Amino acid sequence: MAQDGVTLPGGASAQRQQPRWARWWARRHRIADWLLAVAFLPWTALMLVGDPHGLLGLPAMAVSAVAALIGDAAGVFLGLHAGWGALTLGAAVSTVVLFRRTRPRLMFGAATVTLLCYGDIGMAALAMFTYAAWYDDRRRLGLWSAWLTLCTLAVYTVGGPMTAPAASTMLIMFYGLPLAVGLWIGTRRVLIANLRERAERLEREQHLLADQAISAERTRIAREMHDVVAHRVSLMVLHAGGLEVSAPDGRTAESAALIRNTGRDALAELREILGVLRDNPESSAPTAPQPVLSDLFRLVGEWRSAGMPVRESATGTPVTLSAQTERTAYRIVQEALTNAAKHAPDADVRVHLDHRPDTLEITVENSPSPAAAAAPPPSSGYGLAGLRERVNLAGGSLRTGPRLDGGWRVTAVLPLTPDGLGEGRGAGQ
């Protein structure tokens, strides 16, 4: 709870998004302040007109006696001035009530003044209730309550109309009950605030535990990839290097060199991926440039060197594309060529790029394979699914399916977003 003031929950923007009843409920305390302020106008008038005690008791009796002696006209004149004075005092008291939750010292000071001047116990009861409900300084609440109790006893018992037992009964009714209710409300508010804080803390801890679990899983995946995949690829590169040195003919040496270079590139990319999985700051971003459309010639050349008959063609006028679009186009051709090599060895493959005014259409298709592979390499089964996700992140569409002659076709359409705009959409890759 606040010590110097009260901050209502919810900002202005949050309140605008809430339904009307929720906005009214959020303002309920301020509405209560205004209702109490309005109620204290007639209350103050009744306390003054009735039988005021305290410092204003004798002047009020004197004014009544003078009005009775000097006649009706003068009495009306004095009554009007007394009414204006009561109205002014009531307006001042109501203004103080508006700040009962934000200015507790002002509230207790006004309660002391009204109690000593004309015996107003309502202001004192409201001050005790408000402080008990909104503030947690019990020591200060006890001091103020004791002070107002002493003032009440002084006004109503020392030369006043009440005896000590009657004053005690009045104190229990007008002070004890509001104070008890205020303490209950304040304790409940503190309990709810503590429970809310605890729930938020538990939620933050759950997020931290989830992040730790994700980090641990990523580290485990990186370790398994290093122990299994990187080890196997390294052995492949070493054997290819040995074959290149001891090859009996130039064709075999050329093929071994291609295998060795491809394996080294795979190891370099795998090392970057492992660095990202392990949250290594030095490996958070790839050091080598990411492949783009201009690298398609090198990619097609590598597959041709491996013995795949690949034809490439392009139509339209090339334009500057975003980095994400170019990377996606490269990965589409790469995955399609890899699938063709796995499932249709020795088949003719065609790569076609159609540069349109607002889109880039990529088509990779292969003819039926003349002979199935004796031992096709293992497949993860997630190549096309991952490719579809990549295309969706770029805002494009992907179609895959067999041709009428038994071949296979992969067609992707990518939007030509301006350079740089596609980066934000691909951040989740």
Q: Would you tell me the overall average pLDDT? A: 78
Which outline best applies?
rod-shaped
Low-confidence spans: 2-15, 73-78, 283-287, 418-429
Largest sheet: 5 strands, mixed
Give me the secondary-structure category: alpha+beta
Order of helices and strands: HHHHHHHHHHHEHEEHEEH
**Count the strands?**
5
Helical residues, percent: 55-70%
Strand order of the largest sheet: 1-2-3-5-4
How many H/I helices? 14
Count of the domains = 3
Distance between the termini: 45 Å
Beta-strand share of residues: 5-15%
Radius of gyration: 43 Å
Please state the oligomeric state of the protein chains shown. single chain
Transmembrane segments: 31-49, 82-100, 106-129, 141-159, 165-186
Protein name: histidine kinase
GO molecular function: ATP binding; phosphorelay sensor kinase activity; protein dimerization activity
InterPro entries: HATPase_C_sf, HATPase_dom, Sensor_HK_TwoCompSys, Sig_transdc_His_kin_sub3_dim/P
Please characterize this protein's 3D structure:
This protein is of the alpha+beta class. The protein has 3 domains: 151 residues, no CATH class; 78 residues; 126 residues, Heat Shock Protein 90 (2-Layer Sandwich). Helices cover 65% and strands 8% of the residues. The protein contains 14 helices and 5 strands. A 5-stranded mixed sheet has the order 1-2-3-5-4, with helices on one face. Strand 2 and strand 3 form a beta hairpin. Helix 4 packs antiparallel against helix 5, helix 7 packs antiparallel against helix 8 and helix 7 packs parallel to helix 9. The N terminus and C terminus are likely disordered.
